[in-house]
Design brief:
globular, five-stranded mixed beta sheet, mainly beta
């Protein structure tokens, strides 16, 4: 029998909320593997949006609008 390691916690993925104005829906954009942008797609029309992550001068906002 294999041992199960219960000490591992699922890692939380960083995300921001996005209102996709194209189809008037809300979705989440997740931090990409390179950790240089939040990327998301409209769940209705598959339009892509990207929010760059910058070192200086960015924002603390957690909710955005994309058109």
């Amino acid at each position: 029998m294999g041992e199960c390691d219960d000490t591992q916690q699922p890692q939380e993925r960083s995300f921001v909320g996005v209102h996709m104005k194209c189809c008037n829906v809300y979705t989440r954009a997740y931090l990409n593997v390179q950790r240089d942008a939040f990327v998301g797609w409209c769940p209705r029309c598959a339009g892509q949006m990207r929010i760059r992550v910058v070192e200086e001068g960015g924002t603390d906002a957690r909710f955005f609008e994309a058109s």
